[in-house]
Amino acid sequence: xxxxxxxxxxxxxxxxxxxxxxxxxxxxxxxxxxxxxxxxxxxxxxxxxxxxxxxxxxxxxxxxxxxxxxxxxxxxxxxxxxxxxxxxxxxxxxxxxxxxxxxxxxxxxxxxxxxxxxxxxxxxxxxxxxxxxxxxxxxxxxxxxxxxxxxxxxxxxxxxxxxxxxxxxxxxxxxxxxxxxxxxxxxxxxxxxxxxxxxxxxxxxxxxxxxxxxxxxxxxxxxxxxxxxxxxxxxxxxxxxxxxxxxxxxxxxxxxxxxxxxxxxxxxxxxxxxxxxxxxxxxxxxxxxxxxxxxxxxxxxxxxxxxxxxxxxxxxxxxxxxxxxxxxxxxxxxxxxxxxxxxxxxxxxxxxxxxxxxxxxxxxxxxxxxxxxxxxxxxxxxxxxxxxxxxxxxxxxxxxxxxxxxxxxxxxxxxxxxxxxxxxxxxxxxxxxx
Amino acid sequence: xxxxxxxxxxxxxxxxxxxxxxxxxxxxxxxxxxxxxxxxxxxxxxxxxxxxxxxxxxxxxxxxxxxxxxxxxxxxxxxxxxxxxxxxxxxxxxxxxxxxxxxxxxxxxxxxxxxxxxxxxxxxxxxxxxxxxxxxxxxxxxxxxxxxxxxxxxxxxxxxxxxxxxxxxxxxxxxxxxxxxxxxxxxxxxxxxxxxxxxxxxxxxxxxxxxxxxxxxxxxxxxxxxxxxxxxxxxxxxxxxxxxxxxx
Lengths: 434, 248
Prior knowledge:
Chain A is mostly helical. Chain A is built from 23 helices and two strands.
């Protein structure tokens, strides 16, 4: 077993020589650390080598630094020293319960935790499932507002990432892959927290919950589709309000899960500023983002959405310019709004006929009522946009007829030349003269 | 120029067909036309992969718009100049009058078809401009008016919509687009056949560069004009056959 075992034996011998075999009492932290401060102290438990080392400095600096070891490791209270039995799991809930008298926070997340994906996994006996100490730390546990704490806002992503970037764990438990944490760190939220130290920006727990983390497919999860607007709305209050009144917000609230929630347009862990080219709502990406649903035949039919919104936009000058990367032209959101999208029948809608001059006027300063006289999404047919339709029909026929005549004439001309009926007379090379 | 020199040595006379002024007008028209096509078609055919390459080559969509409008200014300027030219210059005016289609052109078309189908053994005799050339001139004139008119509406869409409803701009847009296609096809099929691809001209008629046509070609292609110049109005020969005659 080598060095750790040797150190362990030596330490125990030293303890016995110095103290005999006294009983361990509250306040005897120093005695415990006699052995447990030896770096490398470890023991084989259930076939796994487990470190028994306690960093005295980390412990002293922790929020429990003034507590004696046996106040948590109660199974050693009054036991002989050195102890022989393996420590039992520390029960944090011994103190962390409401109405406790020892001064622990009165907040009791134990029930929430027990109901969470993590708590349930622990109950199933899953050895990988995180318990209190896996997130909060054990001997080094610190308060949430302590910047050295593993649960300090700026450190949350790394703390969750310890397991959620682990491919082995991800595969074993079918949990969302390591990509998510990495992407989050590159997102507007991750950068704000990690690079700029803006602690108000969202960290994992703001959306997923703290102790009561549930799988997204669980209907009561904070990240289940119906709850997403509310979850994002915790910080984005004004947008939440506007979205709630929009056609999408109303539909989702009515239980129509095909209606988009925040993440359907903005992404989840990948959320970027709209002005960033990687963003799904960047001016040149909006079209594709809206089209995920507005070009979906099933959704269009089921909800009676007007068809051909994408193709008619693409055919317009706005659409063409947007396709070539011009960010100044109108995309879907420029006219329809982003969070406050309303149907054109709603007088408050930006695309209500009455409001069109004002909406167009955002870019076209002189926009008059004439902007509303005709379709915006031009869909030429015998019923709609007839002018454009018949002009197309006329030109198509005219061009076809003209080209057929031209080609026919040219064919006749070439045939006549081939038959020798017209002789070359361009210059005097052959002295051609008819 | 070796052919020209050979012709000059052979003592063949040359007739001036296009004055320098007209040749410059043609070059400006040609240049602006192709720039307008190159900068305009990627908008009409935005879904075609090569369009993106063209836009990239032009320096982006905004640059495309600027170049298109710059070429449009050249075309508009040329059109305005040309109107003054045909009204106020002697050559311009007489050529313009000669380009107006008349009943003979219809007879010429019929006779040409008769000739092609073997119903007659002689091609119709043309004057200064044949019906092909007249059709091309008329097409450029009408095409320019339509393209400049619809283009101006689309360029100044905000001002236009002070008077016009939005649907008229949609029509202007579709007309601009289809008329462009028509003009482009007319040029590459009709015009290119007559000045480049037909065996007589292949690979290219040089008249647009030199402005001159040989006596043989004149007799062959514009016999009525040739007769008129050489017999009825011999005094005009000085103007139409500058060098070869002068050197003698």
